[in-house]
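Dissemination and training. As part of the outreach component of the grant, students in the summer workshop were shown how a complex can be specified as a set of sequence lines and then modelled as a single object. The example used during the hands-on session is reproduced here so that future cohorts can follow it. Participants entered these lines:
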Amino acid sequence: MPDNTYTLNATFTLRQPLAHTSVGSGNKLYLRTVSLLVDGEPQRIFAMSGNALRGAWRNCGALYYFSALDVMVPRTTFHTFFSGGALSKDVATDVRTIFTLRSLSPFLSLFGGAVGSTLISGKFSTTFAYPVCLETVPFFTKSPRINPPPYPAYKSLKGLVTLIRKDDTKSPYSPVLDVESFTDTDVEKDSSPQTFYDVEYLVPGAQLFSSLRLACSPLELGAFVSCLCEWAKDPVIGGRGAQGFGQVDLWLDFPTDTNGPLDPFVSVVDGQLSLSPLAQEVKALYDDYLLSIKNGHMGGVNALLSITEGKQSKTVEGPSDSLPAKGKRGRPPKNKQEVLPKTDEDVSVD
Amino acid sequence: MKPHPFRVTCHLYDGRVLSTDGLFFLDAILYHAWFAKYQPQVLQGIHAQFDRMHMGLPLLRVNGRYAASCGFYTQNAIGTDNWVKHSDFQAPFAQGLLDLGNAAQVNTSSGLFKSYYENPVVRLIGPVTFYGVGNATKVRDLLSYIPALGKKSSAGWGAVSRWDVDPWHEDWSTYSPDLGLMRPMPPEEIAIDPAPYMLRDVGVKPPYWKPYSQKLCYVPNVFQSPPLTHFEGAHNNVNT
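and obtained this result:
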């Protein structure tokens, strides 16, 4: 089945402060910023990395996949599905094996990864997510999802909060502390672990926008919807989620005319997931497919694990009806008399 | 159909593109687009089902090269960005899912499961302009298959918002009166004063990354104005 291209506009609205840092300076953690060209001059603006968004959804999709198959996952497979894997010279991977792997796991085919000596290219890309503000007006498309102007200045969207890591040895709970375990050095140095640190954040109510592109089959689109279904259970982006940062509402819409009606795909608002008919359809397709894999279709889970764990590199057969007979170096047998078909790109001038 | 000169302008979404040497090649982009259109299974790594067909780009060929220039642009900033790959063995969801088998531990500081922090070179650039000779209509169609320039496009760098293809008054694919050398040229073939240009190994036809495509060539100066001294990067990130 040929791939379709789906473009989605993503709009995030922060329900809690968002912390997304790159590096800290001392005990201060600043928002990750990038240079954007604003009125001809580069300015530092917050950006939620596409890598971070992809990583969060990737984990959710892999979790959904293996939960549906109900298997324990060996570490190489785990690394490939959750983190993208790593190239290894030890295992030669045949193109037929990759074909089989893409068929066995639409999720891995969508997000890509490394298996043995081969990189599996992904089919899903996302832009960075920028805040809706005066400085980023040239970069986002006006839509009813985005708050109407006047847009806030970027500096008004930032805040700094001080957090404390308290030394509980001096708290009311300290009676349960075994003071005998203190060494003389501990007592002499009085090394208290209490720390103050500052976290810069984007304020609740701020909006972020980004654009997603999926060049994939409906089955792989279903795998993407499964990522969102799992993520909707805890719709958090960025860091420090355990401390209350990063909870968001998300709308994913197909692009439409600025003044036209919205064409929603998936939304997560107030923690409630809402799927469009298309999203429901591809998700059902994906769920049925996972059930068939669980029941042994194409060798089932064992075939998948044998490829990703490198125990079977060149002998796994894909669907035979779609693969031609192998010739030298895995290519179809060569026919010297064959006249190669031309594409309509040829320019007959040399 | 007789080939005509044309100009291609690539408008980037946010102008942030990952490229170490800053060189973009129109014929390389079209080469990738050709596979995206006609043989997407090659890009997906499943080319056992490769349907053999004549590989042709809608560009004039001159001395074994395509009549296509490098991309020229204004560079507003250069520096490093970062992205992180971390292993998820310690994540809460790993419990109950991860089967460690006989492995006593997983080493995430080196080896197969290493986590790492990458600092690629990022450039903040304006629209990228290319020049070529060929069939502009087919070039426009092929370019519609290219959503991004440069590395790590899946994570958001180099996203393209629009491609424009316009007729151009003369062939600027190799030399131009305004910009001089327009594409890498071997010393024995260069027809202009090579003094302003750097000499280095670089590809002369796609696939550019393959060693057999590379030669010692003079390389054009693709920056249309001097780069700013502004430096961006993770270690220059204090911006309160």
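Confidence is low (pLDDT under 50) at residues 313-332 of chain A. Students were then asked to discuss how this feature might be tested experimentally.
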